[in-house]
Write a structure and sequence with these properties.
This protein is of the alpha+beta class. The protein has nine helices and seven strands. Strand 6 and strand 7 form a beta hairpin.
């Protein structure tokens, strides 16, 4: 089924008319050349001018008939292709036969000839094959348009499915983040640290306006993503105090590089949950971004106690990040996570630079 716009229908009509003109113009040129090379001295009294005029009239009438046939077919473009093909060939055979007979009769009258029997059938067959050739060209045109629209439709469906997946994964982060933050507020209230809990709620409100309200389908600059994570870590610092040390090492050339929004949030949350919360001493959470030419590497590292984290890909946060990256980049990314030998945990994301993807 082809649901074509007005502009698309106009474009198809122009293509159909162009094909018709080129076909019949080519036939006139062929016949003229044949006359030039095959004609003889016996044809001296033959009216070449009249013959050429009649051929032009014949070609113009064929083009006009073809245009009318196409306009009829255009009304049924939503039908299955085989039905369109049957309708088109049936119409072309019918009108083409009439047109060929009328053309033969006109030539007989003009040149005082009488065409009979097999010669009539041969004449009809000869001119009809041009009509059928035109019909085949029109069908090829319609088929190519239909295939292109189906490909575009499949591509759009895949894009919509990918957007839905990205959106679902991105929204999955929101309740997880809110739960952890409200858990921190609850812990402060239980410790009778009401002012600190109130301060967290105020910063959380600001954070929600600037972070979670963003369109989950749009990427954001890396510097904005890092700034959001620093706000989150500042909120958690109200709970853990000096047990959280924060470091950043962001290549200045990567500040405007786009990344999926909140892609670092689960990694930073894991560092707080599995390293800071389970350690008695200070833990450093480090966010890095390194330029690698046509790619760049993001990393979140902590130096908490070794062996306290789940293995890569088994936790909800890490799985969410991996799935979001796959939905966004396909296989054009690298994901690596694991404990460090001296203690701590590191997650690395290697992503393509925007310039490399355009």
């Amino acid at each position: 089924m082809m649901d074509l716009s007005r502009d698309e229908r106009r474009q198809l009509r122009r293509w159909a008319l162009t094909l018709s003109v080129l076909l019949w113009l080519g036939e006139i040129i062929y016949l003229e050349l044949r006359l030039q090379f095959v004609g003889s001295a016996d044809d001296a009294e033959f009216s070449w001018a009249l013959l050429q005029v009649m051929r032009l009239v014949w070609a113009a009438s064929a083009i006009a008939i073809g245009a009318l046939v196409y306009l009829v077919i255009e009304r049924y473009l939503e039908r299955p292709f085989w039905q369109i093909a049957l309708m088109l060939f049936a119409m072309v055979i019918a009108v083409g036969t009439v047109h060929s007979l009328a053309n033969r009769w006109a030539f007989d009258v003009a040149f005082a000839e009488v065409t009979k029997g097999p010669e009539v059938y041969m004449t009809v067959a000869y001119w009809l094959h041009l009509q059928l050739a035109w019909a085949a060209l029109i069908l090829a045109l319609l088929y190519s348009v239909r295939m292109r629209r189906e490909q575009l439709g499949r591509a759009q469906a895949q894009a919509n499915a990918q957007k839905a997946e990205i959106q679902a994964l991105r929204y999955q982060v929101n309740p997880h983040f809110l739960f952890n933050t409200l858990n921190s507020v609850s812990a402060l209230v239980l410790d009778e640290r009401g002012k600190e809990a109130e301060s967290i709620l105020r910063r959380l409100s600001e954070f929600l306006r600037g972070g979670l309200s963003a369109d989950p389908l749009e990427d954001i600059p890396l510097e904005e993503e890092v700034a959001q994570q620093l706000v989150y870590l500042d909120i958690e610092r109200s709970r853990f105090g000096e047990r959280i040390h924060v470091e950043t090492d962001i290549d200045p050339t990567l500040g405007s590089e786009k990344v999926p929004s909140f892609i670092l949030q689960p990694l930073v949350e894991n560092a707080v949950k599995y390293a800071v919360a389970r350690s008695t001493g200070p833990v450093t959470v480090r966010i890095e971004a390194k330029d690698m030419g046509d790619r760049f590497r993001l990393a979140v590292t902590d130096d908490g106690d070794i062996g306290v984290k789940p293995s890569a890909g088994t936790g909800t946060g890490l799985r969410n990040v991996r799935e979001r990256l796959h939905a966004r980049y396909g296989d054009d990314f690298d994901f690596d996570a694991g404990p460090l030998g001296a203690g701590g945990y590191r997650v690395e994301l290697t992503l393509p630079r925007q310039a490399a993807r355009t």
